[in-house]
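Internal tracking record. Fields below are filled automatically when a chain is submitted to the structure queue. Please do not edit lines marked as system-generated. If the sequence contains nonstandard residues, flag them in the REMARKS field before resubmitting.
Queue: standard
Priority: normal
Entity type: single polypeptide chain
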Amino acid sequence: MGETAPPFDEMSDTGATVRAPYQTYRAWLDTAAPDLLSRRHAQADMLFRRIGITFAVYGEAAGAERLIPFDVIPRILSRDEWKMLSRGVCQRIQALNRFLHDVYHDQEILKAGIVPGDLVLGNEFYREEMKGFTPPGGVYVHIGGIDVVRTGENDFHVLEDNLRTPSGVSYMLEDRDIMMRLFPDLFDAYSVAPVNHYPQALLANLCHVAPAGRDSPTVVLLTPGQFNSAYFEHAFLAEEMGVELVQGHDLFVEDDVVFMRTIEGPRRVDVIYRRIDDDFLDPKAFRADSMLGVPGLFEAYRKGRVTLANAIGTGVADDKAIYHHVPDMIRFYLGEEPVLANVPTWFLKHDDDRAYVLEHLSELVVKEVHGSGGYGMLIGPKASTQEISAYRERIIADPANFIAQPTLALSTCPTFVDQGIAPRHVDLRPFVLTGQTTTVVPGGLTRVALREGSLVVNSSQGGGTKDTWVLER
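SYSTEM-GENERATED OUTPUT FOLLOWS
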């Protein structure tokens, strides 16, 4: 099921007619100086370096950091396109929150046979310690990143759900800021929905789920530290929200209450936006060798004295094996049909699926069930015979660790590259917030595969980003 027809181009589709969202941009581009985009690209690069937006790539030389490439041509979505997308991603997060509450309480969806029990109860991210516990407000996923791909005019599919510590929102915000500096005339010509209120929306959601009785809650952002690949984002969001950026050693627990060390003495902490994985949060409850967490934090959490966002144990719901069942969750919990479809998926632990995939490896995308960031993938149409052979051996050795999906003809957007303007494949990660209600900021992070023909948009694999414009009219 490889690419046989040209992919859908979001600016001009077949190349003959400019689609409505891009018509104003196309007219502007036709009258712009030939070297304008080149000059703006250089200015954007300089601004990003000055701001210090870097991304550490694990596996590269120690301490190596680099800029995520930024494209100066925006991705533009109509109001109607966004209306459908926003409904779809909010619906999905609502169902996933219900699923998480269920699997840690009555497990009705397992008893109904809709989701296999072994996928949940045997999952490495399922936390027995969370059974019977309800987080403040009943919210498990306070911040969700839903990766969406497009294959046609109205064909959007969810590629995966990111529910543990989804990253990338700082790039969405900085991309917009840079574009407004570089192209103020375009923002005058277009009515683009704002995104810069995201930090305030996030803070309001976090305050809403503070423990009962805490009317003016103290919120902090807990980071593993400057060697984490997303440290820039942690520092950026803490500053934008006006909250303290802390590491584990800045916090302590006394009488099951969390405190922050300050020069004025201990200050109670009510909500922790944590960017640390479950295992490292509390050496008393999880990994004893963790130097990143706070001893006693989990007990304070269980007693309702502090809120963690996202909740412990959310990883069971963004596992790639669970992904297949999200449409059924939407029907089961919400009584609705899914707005956004899943990508067809084969589970290699099933004999029939495995037999099919092993016979068609050169046509499919194969992923590790617990993988993220584009690591450990096989993209069959782009892989060598040797790579396919080696991946085949990995599958045979541990088939339950893999899923496979068709190689979708991801949509393309015009992108400024060394050769000029050329189509490049893109995806979209909207950021969904849940507190009192579930909402999404209009836009999200568009990631772009900068190498010609590449389908891998992940920044860790050489991808870049674009500003995403949602038109208000």
